[in-house]
Amino acid sequence: MAIRFQTKKEIVAEVNETASKALSLVIADYRGVTSNDMASLRAKARAENVNLRVVRNTLARRAVEGTEYACAVEAFTGPSILAFSMEDPGAAARLCKDFAKTNEKFEVRGLAVGGEFLGADQIDRLAKLPTRDQALSMVMAVMLAPITKLAMTLNDIPGQVTRVVAAVRDQKREAA
């Protein structure tokens, strides 16, 4: 079905705006995936703040021009679904990886992050990134560790004194 020129311009503008705000991009081939499965993928994507778009490859190439995802134009072949992570760089990678486990026909072609294109075999690299909350908790644990260690050390001093006094008492009792 032919798309009017004005509609094409609007699609390119929308995808370009999304790409300029996104943190990462995953490109996948969705050929053969049922509409019910695609609906469940879209629902999961909305829940994880991942923007999914099915766009013609020529329009997708124009849309990513001038963004850090211009490196991914080689992967725009055949039917493609674009998954843009909007808040968490690993969200789209985790979503597509999990979906591909349950749907054999869904195939990840590649991903782009920080102006670098990675092959589909590198999806674990991005999918294993911690979420923002996980990263913050890791940083807080690292910041809290020295304080905890100091408190434990200071708390142990009276215990050490008590054990030394008890040992001296026991020695004097044995000597007497």
From TrEMBL:
Keyword Ribosomal protein: yes
This protein's UniProt keywords: Ribonucleoprotein, Ribosomal protein, RNA-binding, rRNA-binding
Cellular component aspect of the GO annotation: ribosome
InterPro entries reported for this sequence: Ribosomal_uL10, Ribosomal_uL10-like_sf, Ribosomal_uL10_bac, Ribosomal_uL10_bac_type
Pfam families the record matches: Ribosomal_L10
Cited CDD domains: Ribosomal_L10 (cd05797)
Function statement: Forms part of the ribosomal stalk, playing a central role in the interaction of the ribosome with GTP-bound translation factors.
Family under the similarity heading: Belongs to the universal ribosomal protein uL10 family.
The name this protein goes by in its record: Large ribosomal subunit protein uL10
Provenance organism: Allohahella marinimesophila
Lineage: Bacteria, Pseudomonadati, Pseudomonadota, Gammaproteobacteria, Oceanospirillales
Gene assigned in the entry: rplJ
